[in-house]
From TrEMBL:
Region (Disordered): 174-241
Organism: Seriola lalandi dorsalis
Gene3D superfamilies from the UniProt entry: 5'-nuclease (3.40.50.1010)
Annotated family: Belongs to the UTP23/FCF1 family. UTP23 subfamily.
Biological role stated in the UniProt entry: Involved in rRNA-processing and ribosome biogenesis.
Protein's UniProt name: rRNA-processing protein UTP23 homolog
Location of this chain's protein in the cell: Nucleus, Nucleolus
Residue spans of biased composition, Basic residues class: 229-241
Amino acid sequence: MKIKRQKQAKKTISFYKYNFNFREPFQILIDGTFCQAALKNKIQIKEQMPKYLMGEVHLCTTNCALKELETLGKELYGAKIILQRFQVRNCPHFKNPVPASECLLSMLGDTNPHHYFVATQDHTVTTGLKKIPGVPLLYIILNTIVLDKPSQTSLDHVQAVQLGQLVSPAQQQSIRSLKEEQGINQKDGERRGKKRKRKQNNPNPLSCLKKKKKGVPTPPLKKSEQGEKRKRSRHKKQNTE
């Protein structure tokens, strides 16, 4: 049974890697309900989660999830101690905490841009995240951690990308990087239309040389001088009387 679960988990992870650009270390967003279930079933989250997902993980939570456990009292004190060991990610409700279910869903947004896995036993969170494409769900059942199969929303999204109706997250990332390279990543095309300033190059040293003065052309020789040889004059000696 354990080998079968491992194979299914490997297949599901490959699906999210290929279609939604998930990479190690995997970021696992955990709430108090998951910690409480792990405590009851004697599951060591830090030890078992990397083994089950077959890769490096970062376990994290939010301030709202911690505040919720504080308000629920001593019954969830053990879950609170476990949750405090994980990294606390910034959420938009720092001053005014909201229920953990609402906070976790807000961290995912519409497309889960930070590639979170969500570990929860909360039915409200489970129902909400299944409406968001590309969100892997982890839960505990029968003393084991289970990675749920991709939701129908995720499958529909992948099918739409394959048909060319949508752009995949991997393609969006490549487009973003290309825009940054070309300097057109600003909103509303702030840079569009701006002329690039040419760098002021130094003058060519050859162009700075003084021009040579053209000499006066020598007149051509006359034909008589060219063709005829100079005649030698002979002087006759006078006879002396």
